[in-house]
Amino acid sequence: MIWNLLRRIVLTAVLVPLGVAGARKLGDAVERRRGPNNRASRLLRQGADTAQTLFGRKKRRRFGFR
Q: Average pLDDT of the chain?
């Protein structure tokens, strides 16, 4: 039972950052083709930012507070 939990945690720790990187890369590719004001690229970028702050490294703030 503990192995199943450990396997699930490890898979989440590996697959979520890979999915975020893929979404960010796809958003960049769409933005290059269709321009910066595209809804799909904006949603992909926002989704990648949200998932990155939830599961991965935190966004850096310009100033040290908050």
A: 79
User: Tokens in use for 37?
Assistant: 């004001």
Report, as ranges of residue numbers, the positions in the chain whose pLDDT lies below 70: 54-66
Cβ contacts of residue 61 below 8 Å, gap of 6+?
none
pTM greater than 0.70 (yes/no): no
Domain ranges (residues) in the chain: 1-55
Q: How far, in Å, CA of 10 to CA of 42, rounded?
A: 29
Pair of tokens at residue 25:
């890369």
pLDDT in the model for residue 57? 61
Classify residue 28 as exposed, middle or buried by CB count within 10 Å of its CB (0-12, 13-18, 19+). middle
